[in-house]
Amino acid sequence: MAGAPEGTIDNRSSAPLDVVVVGAGFAGLYMLERLRQLGLSTRVFEKGGDVGGVWYWNRYPGARCDVESMQYSFSFSEDLQQQWRWNERFAPQPEILAYAQHVADRFDLRRDIAFNTTVTAVHFDESAGLWNIATDRGETVSSRFCIMATGCLSETRTPDIAGLDVFEGKAYHTGNWPHEGVDFTGQRVGVIGTGSSGIQCIPMVAQQAGKLFVFQRTPNFSIPARNAPMDETYERQWKDNYPELRRQAREDSTSGTIYEKSSRKGHEAEPLERQREYERRWQRGGVNFMHSFNDLMLDKRSNDTAADFVRARIRATVRDPVVAEMLSPKDHPIGSKRICIDTDYHATFNRDNVTLVDLRKAPIERLIATGLQTADTEYELDSIVFATGYDAMTGALLRMDIQGRDGETLAHAWESGPRTYLGLMTAGFPNLFTITGPGSPSVLASMIFAIEQHVDWIVDCLQAMQQRGTNLIEAETDAQDRWVAHVNEVADRTLFPLANSWYVGANIPGKPRVFMPYVGGVVPYRQKCDEVAANGYEGFRMSTAPSQPGRRI
Length: 553
Ligand code: NA7
Hints:
Blueprint lengths: L16 E6 L3 H13 L3 E4 L8 H4 L20 H6 L9 H14 L6 E2 L4 E7 L4 E6 L4 E9 L21 E4 L14 E5 L3 H13 L2 E6 L5 E3 L7 H9 L1 H10 L19 H14 L15 H18 L3 H6 L13 E3 L11 E5 L5 E5 L2 E4 L3 E3 L2 E4 L8 H4 L2 E3 L6 H4 L18 E3 L12 H22 L3 E4 L1 H16 L29 H13 L5 E4 L10
Bound molecules: ligand NA7.
Ligand NA7 binds next to helix 5.
């Protein structure tokens, strides 16, 4: 920034705002709506050209939520949840984006959002007790609070493959898809990556492409979605009972999504009975399969029975036994990487125009002008789709230059992995909140559910500060240390850490291996957050900025 010393933000703006929110996905939208009700002056900065967050960018063919639409929606407005109509059991990306746009219009949120604006730096000015926030448009603003609504899966990751700039065809990333769409008709297409995004888009691309090569390093477990047009009776049942069902999600679920729970252990059930249960849930489709028994993520013996069932289904679907074997995951417990749900994924490998390439046998060496070179073959391609995922949970935060007290950077504070208290704040960064930050259930919960809980908690906290007449809050290091230890301890009791997943940062070379989301369940987590608040924000320190003695928030 011209005129500012390197490493500091030149803050020339006049009156500080009360709050800056970074991001206008579902978290930013709801945060803004609640802050307005508090009468706080708020500005939202959003990198994209419109609201929606990941659903704005993530437009690849087949993109769809893995939480049922009746549950993947805001609960804060009864009118909204009654009036909005979902067309499918699992909403496709365009419909979710339309919903986000509807929310923005309905609550007149756009007027406080600066679109096409990326926040680059966020520095705490200790003497003023303010955050100075710089954007890529050269603007700087200061505000008393800064709330990160930057999303858990928003920083796309393209692997460092040699020759990326040499390839003369078209290259796409599933998480940053062209708005006008892509027509692959007749093309030779390569898809790299077989996580959720790859598994959703491969069947769609296969229908268009002349020839599709799927470059697979690790196969993933996937359950059929059995997506269907919305059943009106089902929709009515939800709408007639929303208050009770939302209560159930809050008080009696592990993830904020209501699934059919089981009270039985998988390895204790009779083999035939177990098989029947898996089959029944497989036929109904979706993540409900992972709730067939109550110990699938706790006991490897039970988990193995579910994994065996899914591998058998792959063998039953894929005609070529060699391909079926390649598609069968064996290196991690089922569910320890985010379970995928799909439409015709495995059957797609029966198509004549689809070839599965095993990168374990011959890894990618480089891209070349005409395509992709593995250790043993050259593939001629017109287009390459990178379905290679995200720098999850911390990526969007660490790409900004965030500096707290004494110029401490968030990157330094988190160099051994993210450290937060409740996923809401980090010690040394006063008045900086993270919505669904690492250390909270976040991606292990239904995101909109997790967002509502965090936003409501933050709003209550700001109100408590108003009542006390304080204007600074920060996490205490001791409380944070205890929470981080607890997050790890709980994760270690499960099978989750056994996988090289993005939950542990394993997909990003050099990223510290730490289990980032809180796996203890949304009910105990909410109880803990509520207790902390009830005990006068135990573990947080509230104070008054010396420069603003009489200033309430
Ligand atoms: P994921 O789940 O992180 O999947 C990324 C895929 O890309 C995965 O199969 C990776 O294989 C593969 N990958 C990554 N780098 C490479 C290289 N260098 N070579 C070959 N293959 C590679 O991302 P998604 O976008 O599918 O899903 C992210 C989340 O979004 C998902 O879990 C849902 O919550 C929504 P690997 O497993 O690393 O061997």
